[in-house]
Design goal:
The chain is mostly helical and 45 residues long. It contains one helix and no strands.
Length: 45
């Protein structure tokens, strides 16, 4: 339940999944799911 995770855990999860996708050459996108908000802005690429 991502809405219960703290901000640092959310950042680590996003960084990890983006690294895996980049390593495998997989495109990705991020969108809001069922009104859940990651509450992050200006995430570095």
């Amino acid at each position: 339940m991502i809405d219960l995770a703290d901000v640092e855990d959310k950042k680590r999860w996003l960084a990890d999944i983006r690294a895996v996708f980049a390593k495998r050459g997989i495109g990705c996108a991020l969108w809001n799911y069922k009104g859940k908000d990651f509450e992050m802005k200006d995430m570095p690429v």
